[in-house]
Design brief:
The complex is a heterodimer of chains A (465) and B (253).
Chain A (H helix, E strand, L loop, with lengths): L7 H6 L7 H7 L9 H18 L4 E4 L3 E4 L10 H15 L6 E3 L3 H10 L4 E3 L5 H5 L11 H9 L5 H5 L3 H8 L1 H11 L16 E10 L2 H22 L1 E12 L4 E12 L2 H9 L11 E13 L18 H12 L4 E6 L9 E4 L17 E8 L1 E4 L9 E4 L2 E15 L12 E9 L4 E7 L12 E6 L2
Parallel strand pairs in A: 3-4
Antiparallel strand pairs in A: 1-2, 5-8, 6-7, 6-8, 9-10, 11-17, 12-13, 13-14, 14-15, 15-16, 16-17
Helix pairs in contact in A: 5-10, 9-10, 11-12, 12-13
Chain B lengths: L1 H21 L2 H4 L2 E2 L4 H4 L7 E2 L3 E6 L4 H18 L6 E5 L6 H6 L7 E5 L3 H14 L4 E6 L4 H14 L2 E6 L17 E8 L13 E9 L5 E6 L8 E2 L1 H15 L1
Parallel strand pairs in B: 3-7, 3-8, 4-5, 4-6, 6-7
Antiparallel strand pairs in B: 1-2, 8-9, 9-10, 10-11
Helix pairs in contact in B: 6-7
Classes of the chains: A alpha+beta (465), B alpha/beta (253).
């Protein structure tokens, strides 16, 4: 087990990549996570795609830890190279990355300066790559370990040492690869790179002859947009999970409306219905002169067999369609399913999940009330004998209840493994019925013996049917 | 004879009017029996009409009675969803505790909850759910729904064959939610009743006063029943069951 990479704090303590993990543990108290090169690569690819969309059309991966950005013709859009670099550094800081950037005329020089240069941002003027990379150590040149080993034996430490040497013996000693890397860094050999290609989102835009402002006209245009977008989605074998409608008004302001779908869909009727539910949110102002629709998130969607007499299955209406409609009306956070959580504490045993998720059932057969009061309400004038007898009487919301039947206690301990403050806590739950037949779920804080387990106060936590 | 011809004509017309009055739910003839002969025999059609709107509320403005009405509706929804269907529940306040519904036979994977802030949202969500046609039942918690709104829901339920269940909540201490006119096929009041003492210390199955306050084309009635079991089924209160069985027992003993 080796250290793959270490944060600056750890490096200050003496931990460095390549060190044995056991040794690193001796040096300092470390937060150790397993390296995941696959996920790193995935994240880097996403960053490259983002760069290709926002910064420059040609962006690609450079090794496991870097990005190439071809700035030719795009740096001036951001106010020059310096301003561009500052922007990228700020962006990376926002998403929690430390960026080092070098701008140079060749990929080799930029690679070397970004990783081995002194400053986090280095701008190398055109034609001065040679002098800038000369003082860098030799591993800045992207040589493999065999070449580096040979070079060290010859006493070559700096890139600059190679410039003065005759090329033929150098090639014989270090191999042809070393010379190619050197020439690439100096711009004597062209170096291709493989840019990532961002996928175009399905997009359709309609420019209107005259500004429109009535809901009917807007609906008609939305119908045309949805039909066009559905055709694009069909051609690509995709379905939309999120749509955005942009209405450009004559006063130059954009009105945006977005809808989300529980499951990918490209059914024009369904999409149209969802978008038209949001028409009231559009303020046309003096009129809308152009409308565009983008499928912001898409997912692959294969053709499905239509249920019915021919395929031998009963046609069942798709639940996702209903969920989309309700979510568009109420907001997607208002639709949920309840899922069991492994916790004995009643108020922590339920969590909300999205409606199409698989959920777990509760294992316990202990009685649970239809309505849980949150937070539990204190009850007073409780008549109960210690340690574990159910109450004979209690008063809640101004009414005194005389208990005729009771069951309990069901003891629930605090979750000391999650919350240290609950280490000694316990609650004793009782199901009680008063003389009218009304049933309540009461609990007492504490087990009735150990004062550390609770202060023996009584609460009502729920109402049974 | 002219009088008998006239009589036949009138009988035919009366039957036609009755059919129009009672709506189409009766013709479809889909009913979910409670499995309790005493209740089923009192219900028109021999059971709980599916594809129709039903209402339930608490006997009084007490939380326990409303919880009982909620559980009564849960039991019916659970039985409608028994064969893998999904129930949509439009909530107006967040107090429903899903583990209790699971214990009444409605597991969490068959229940989708929609939180609605206002009465209009509850009605709209219920109607949307009914018109979709793929659900087992639609439940809505509501304070007040007028004749027009309930009529819409009843029509939507008739068209799709999905059962609509409305849990009417007490808004004030005096205002009975069932006094407002409604197009619901049956209207129920549920209240807690003292349960039968067990021979040992403890608590037995809960008991309810179940009152069929109104049913379209039928009589109202009331029973004392034992609350829903793990499959959502009711049972007749044991003492009244004893009463009907008493002669046989006496013979046997």
């Amino acid at each position: 087990m080796q250290v793959a990479s270490a944060c600056p704090l750890a490096q200050a303590q003496g931990v460095h990549p390549g060190m044995a993990l056991a040794r690193a543990r001796l040096i300092a108290d470390l937060d150790i996570r397993p390296a995941d090169p696959e996920a790193d690569r995935h994240a880097l690819t996403r960053l490259a795609l983002m760069a290709a969309r926002r910064w420059t059309p040609r962006a690609g991966l450079s090794g496991p830890d870097g990005l190439w950005l071809d700035l030719a013709g795009s740096a001036h859009l951001f106010g020059g190279e310096q301003a561009f670099c500052d922007r990228v550094v700020r962006f990376c800081a926002r998403i929690g990355l430390t960026a080092r950037i070098a701008v140079a005329g060749t990929y080799g020089a930029a690679h070397a300066l970004a990783r081995h240069g002194a400053a986090p941002v280095i701008l190398c003027p055109n034609g001065r790559e040679t002098e800038r990379i000369a003082p860098l150590p030799l591993d800045a040149l992207r040589l493999d370990s065999a070449m580096l080993g040979t070079a060290h034996r010859f006493g070559i430490e700096r890139v600059g040492d190679l410039f003065a040497m005759p090329r033929a013996p150098l090639q014989r000693r270090l191999g042809r690869g070393a010379l190619i890397r050197l020439d690439q860094a100096l711009g004597r050999v062209e170096e291709p790179f493989d840019p990532v290609l961002p996928e175009e989102r399905p997009f359709i835009r309609l420019n209107l002859v005259e500004p429109i402002s009535t809901p009917e006209a807007i609906r008609t245009v939305i119908g045309d947009l949805v039909t066009g977008l559905a055709r694009q989605l069909l051609e690509r074998g995709c379905g939309a999970r999120k749509l955005m409608l942009t209405c450009s008004r004559v006063d130059g302001e954009d009105q945006r409306v977005s809808i989300a779908l529980a499951r990918a869909s490209r059914d024009p009727a369904h999409l149209l219905r969802l978008v038209t539910m949001k028409v009231e949110e559009i303020e046309p102002g003096w009129g809308i002169e152009a409308m565009a629709m983008t499928a912001v998130r898409i997912e692959p969607l294969a053709p499905e067999a239509v249920a019915g007499a021919l395929s031998g299955t009963d046609p069942v209406a798709d639940l996702a369609v209903l969920i989309d409609r309700l979510a568009t009306r109420l907001g997607s956070s208002c639709l949920s399913k309840s899922c069991a959580v492994q916790s004995d504490v009643p108020e922590r045993s339920v969590r909300s999940v999205t409606p199409l998720e698989e959920v777990a059932d509760w294992p316990s057969d202990w009685p649970r009330p239809v309505w849980l009061l949150s937070p539990p309400e204190p009850v007073d004038q409780v008549l109960a004998s210690l340690p574990d007898r159910p109450p004979a009487r209690f008063r809640w919301r101004g009414r005194t209840h005389i208990i005729t039947h009771a069951d309990g206690p069901e003891r629930i301990y605090g979750e000391w493994w999650k919350r240290p403050s609950e280490k000694h806590r316990a609650r004793d739950y009782f199901q009680v019925e008063d003389k009218d037949g009304a049933r309540f779920w009461l609990f007492r804080r504490g087990d009735g013996v150990d004062p550390a387990s609770g202060d023996l106060s009584w609460y009502i936590h729920g109402v049974f049917g | 004879m002219p009088s008998s011809a006239r009589e036949m004509h009138l009988t035919a017309l009366r039957a036609e009017v009755r059919a129009i009055e009672s709506g189409s739910w009766e013709k479809k003839g889909a009913f979910l029996p409670f499995g309790v002969a005493d209740i089923d025999s009192r219900l028109k059609g021999g059971g709980f009409a599916t594809g129709a709107l039903h209402e339930a509320t608490g006997v009084q403005a007490r939380l326990n009675d409303e919880a009982a009405a909620c559980l009564f509706i849960t039991g019916i929804a659970a039985r409608l969803a028994q064969n893998g269907g999904t129930v949509l529940w439009a909530l107006s306040r967040r107090e429903l505790f899903a583990p209790a519904l699971a214990q009444a036979g409605l597991p969490p994977d068959r229940l989708i909850q929609a939180e609605c802030g206002r009465n209009e949202d509850v009605l709209a969500v219920m109607e949307e759910g009914l018109r979709h046609g793929g659900l087992a039942a639609v439940v809505g918690e509501i304070g007040k729904a007028g004749m027009a709104a309930t009529r819409r829901l009843q029509l939507a339920a008739e068209e799709s064959g999905v059962t609509a269940l409305m849990l009417k909540r007490w808004r004030g201490r005096e205002e009975d939610p069932l006094t407002l006119p409604s197009a619901a096929v049956t209207r129920w009041r549920v209240g807690c009743a003292p349960s039968r003492p067990l021979p040992v210390a403890g608590i037995g199955r809960a008991c309810w006063n179940l009152e069929l306050a109104r049913q379209r084309g039928g009589e109202s009635h009331s029973w004392i029943v034992e609350s829903t079991d793990a499959q959502g089924r009711l049972a007749l209160f044991a003492s009244s069951a004893d009463r009907t069985l008493a002669p046989e027992r006496r013979l046997a003993g």
